[in-house]
Amino acid sequence: MLNNREKAIKRISLLKKHFRPSEDFNRELDGCTFDFELAAKVVRGLRPEVHHQVIELVDSMMKHNNFKEKSRAAMRYKTNYWVKKILMKFYEKGIFTPEKVIEDPDLLNRCTMGISFFGGEISTKFAVQIGLYLKSLKNMGTETHKDALMKAATLEEFGCFCLTELGHGSDVSKLETTAHFDQITNQFIFNSPTETSRKFWIGNLASTATKAVVFAQLIINGVRHGIHGFLIQIRDPETHEPLYGVTIGDCGDKIGMQGIDNGWIMFDNFRAGKKALLNKFADISPDGVYTSKITSKAKRMAVQLGGLSGGRIAISQVSNDCALGVSSGALRYWAVRKQFKSPKTKLETRLIDYRINHFRLITKFARHFIQHVGMSKITEFWNQYLEGGLGAENKMTSFAHLISSVAKSVFTWTTFDTCSESRQALGGLGYSSYNGFGQVLAVMDLNRTWEGDNNILMQQAGKLILQNLQYLFMEKPVMPTFDFLTTEMPEAEPYSKSLDDVMNLLELLTYRASTLIHQTGMKLNFAEDKIEAWDKLLAFNTYPMTFAYFDRFLLQNYIEFLENFSGDQKTKEVFTLLGVVYAQKVIIEDAEFFRDYLTRAQIDDLKETLMDNLLKLRKEVVGLSYLLPFTDKMQGALFKLDMKPYEHFLDFVERSERKANIDIDGDIIIPVPR
Ligand SMILES: Cc1cc2nc3c(=O)[nH]c(=O)nc-3n(C[C@H](O)[C@H](O)[C@H](O)COP(=O)(O)OP(=O)(O)OC[C@H]3O[C@@H](n4cnc5c(N)ncnc54)[C@H](O)[C@@H]3O)c2cc1C
């Protein structure tokens, strides 16, 4: 029988040819009480096998993680190079086919997001080409646009997704770009009437794309029909020059994502044929009459853009993976790094053995682990929604929007926070670019803004949560995950059950979610000026309610995961402990809410229990960090799986000195002026 250490070595050896672990690795893995192989199988099973295949294939293709020492131009060149190389390899190996990508662009989008640690730019470029451009052609286009779909899937044509303008990003109903239909020539005439109507921030636009999906106000005979999507050629396929009537520029330097060519575009009486309209949800008849089954402009826009929220699911996944990877790496480093002698043992203490550090990072690791399990359920919901087809009649539409919005907000906010704490956890060495934090923090920062700014998404999610309360009073069925809600607000009464039991913790989180939903609903209902009240209630009512709903959902889902786990008792205990720590921290952070249920003494006891639980987790957590599907090339220099941080870090530093003017993987020489 292999012990945990040997099982872990066997698994890592599959990814890494010569895995020679340090003594620290041996000690940490020997200390774990759970069954490594079983737990790894369970964690891996949370994702379709193709996710792992993609990571393993890309891992085998890369020489090094691309830590940046490159110019913007070199980064862009490398990004395009790798996107093409990786996709063609997927096709060659049969992991995907162009037809499969067209059929299920969300799957490729999520899989390629999973490789973001090889380079955030590479996965973002896939997201722009597949998750935005190809998917909008699929969702909004018809037979007419089939050819462009195939060219997008094979990368014969690169495209971009032009929604945001300089003046408006969140409120896209106010976009200013116009598309007048000219009935005489049967053409659309595109214009950017103001400076603020310039499409801005558009990925792939500055130098890559020849085609664009452009969102503009459709105007026929002076009548405005709202925002519609159009597919247009923007550059000459031979010369790559912008077409007549199109001006394209570069958005310039950014605080990250240098490998993505974000650009701006303006139109001056640019003409495109009638086929440019992506006409699944609206069309123009041969005699120039506008037709659409969806009568409301707002609904039409929501349906057109709705399917794109799959990008939010992918961002949620990649963010949480990143947080798990980074916090795991920091915990491994802490298991090696020592500072200060213990007055008791007279030996230097490992950073991971300080109790404050348990609180700093093990609590975060636990949350991201619970979110990791939650992600699998959220993806399941998303796939159910897609099965219903896009359109106003799909009953899952509102729920899909709710769950993707709140997941994206919570996962990206918690990830940014975890990355920042992990950077600090590495002390001064965390500031070296070879540990990847510059890139990671920049990307995770961006994830909070694009695909819908988190604050906007929280408002939209809040509205949809409250809709469920209304449904209950109207005796209509509620959305999935709202079974806990009733027309009665829970009575607040002293709670005497154990706070170290995951089911009891769920009970408390259920009271909290249910009470906050009722309280917010009531305040809005009784407000004289509902618009004013909505704005005022966001900070102390709607946001806390939305977080509370999601915290509860995550725990409920995690308990289902535990109930379905059929392995040994010890492994189950460790998994349970993660859930308990997650929920205890949530309750302590919102002790103010629980004051009607829990006395001050109970909260103080809970804090002690949490610290004791963290101590128990301390001996498991480094082993747990190896369960996750991360490969060595994804890790920063200090995070390597063999737990020899100084060796790897110095290797990076020395290589960088030797090759100060050479790209880290030795491919491009960047001339240094002498
Ligand atoms: C690197 C990068 C790449 C991008 N790529 C693309 C792309 O390929 N295609 C594309 O179309 N777009 C792209 N975007 C644009 C991105 O989607 C938008 O920036 C984003 O949706 C936010 O819009 P905004 O910048 O207009 O912010 P704003 O809407 O101006 O928001 C600014 C702040 O105001 C807050 N706010 C706004 N409205 C309200 C309100 N009602 N109540 C309270 N607070 C509010 C927001 O929460 C935010 O914090 C990209 C952006 C970046 C930075």
From TrEMBL:
The keyword Oxidoreductase applies. Residues 502-634 form the Acyl-CoA oxidase C-terminal domain. SUPFAM superfamilies: Acyl-CoA dehydrogenase C-terminal domain-like, Acyl-CoA dehydrogenase NM domain-like. Its cofactor is FAD. This is Acyl-coenzyme A oxidase. Residues 160-269 form the Acyl-CoA oxidase/dehydrogenase middle domain. Coiled coil: none annotated. It comes from the Eukaryota. GO terms for cellular component: peroxisome. FAD binds at residues 164, 203. Keywords: FAD, Flavoprotein, Oxidoreductase. One of its GO terms (molecular function) is fatty acid binding. Residues 308-465 form the Acyl-CoA oxidase C-alpha1 domain. GO terms for biological process: fatty acid beta-oxidation using acyl-CoA oxidase; lipid homeostasis. It comes from Euplotes crassus. The lineage of its organism: Eukaryota, Sar, Alveolata, Ciliophora, Intramacronucleata. The active site is at 451 (proton acceptor). Belongs to the acyl-CoA oxidase family.
